[in-house]
Amino acid sequence: MMRPALLVELLLLTLLAALGASALAWQVGQWGWNWDAINHHIYLGLAAEQARWSLDVLAAGTQVYQYPYLYWPVYKIAQMSGSGLAAAIAWSAAQAALLLPPVWLMAHRLIDSGAMAPWEAALLRLAACLLAFLNGILLHGLGMTSNDLLAALPLVWAVALHAGRSSSERTAMLCAALWGVSTAFKWSNGLMLPVLLFWWWQAERPHLPWRRGLALAAGAVLGFGLAYLPWGLQLWEVRGNPFYPYFRGIFPGH
């Protein structure tokens, strides 16, 4: 159970992150529309809301087959009446508010607050969060319509839940499930698996314990399957391949 003081600290930092992202969007003065946004981001958000297989044929090229659900918020914000600046502020603030809690949890678990005064630990956590957010790639992504930050969110939570302490098989399974969800959202996040496996390795043993390995495998498969199921079923019905346009040599689709 989190102490009230820590909860207040987390809420305040989340608010500060949202306000900081809003200020950044205000300074830029517009939403970051690029070719991808015009070509398929908005279309995928529309497809997430209502299937369009019987209406369009490659309306956005092969991007039609990308996982669409993380683009739904962008689509809805773009639909709202108002300026591009207001949309940019809303989107940037929402992403920052979602990302701050797992980043703060990492700092909380990695900083040994028992060896210092509470205010010193709070300042160190603040500095850690600032350091994480003052990242050019993250700041650029806050104001864009791409799904990279949302897709990475489960992965960041997986790292945060494991940070700073040895985890049980149950925690390892949960973290692997979050990695699986993140991979379903964006396949390139699957490249983090070797890093997570190395982190979950128990240093006092010469090999990965079989129970830990089974927990990781089961969690990853379950997380990926549950997150990918709604989209995979649609691709299976339309193309006969839940991963279309990949693995066409395995699935007898078209």
Low-confidence stretches: none
Q: Spell the H/E element sequence.
A: HHEHHHHHHHH
- C-alpha-based Rg, rounded: 20 Å
The geometry reads as: flat
Q: What structural class do helix, strand and pairing data support?
A: mainly alpha
Fraction of residues in helix: 55-70%
Average pLDDT metric: 85
Tally of strands: 1
| Sheet having the most strands | none
Q: What fraction of residues sit in β-strands? A: under 5%
Concise synopsis of the structure shown:
By secondary structure, the protein is mainly α. It has ten helices and one strand.
Structure write-up:
By secondary structure, the protein is mainly α. 66% of the residues lie in helices and 2% in strands. It contains ten helices and one strand. Helix 7 runs antiparallel to helix 8 (169-185).
Question: Which keywords apply here?
Answer:
mainly alpha
Q: How are the elements arranged and paired?
A:
Layout: H1 4-28, H2 35-49, E1 59-62, H3 72-79, H4 84-110, H5 118-133, H6 136-142, H7 148-162, H8 169-185, H9 193-200, H10 210-239
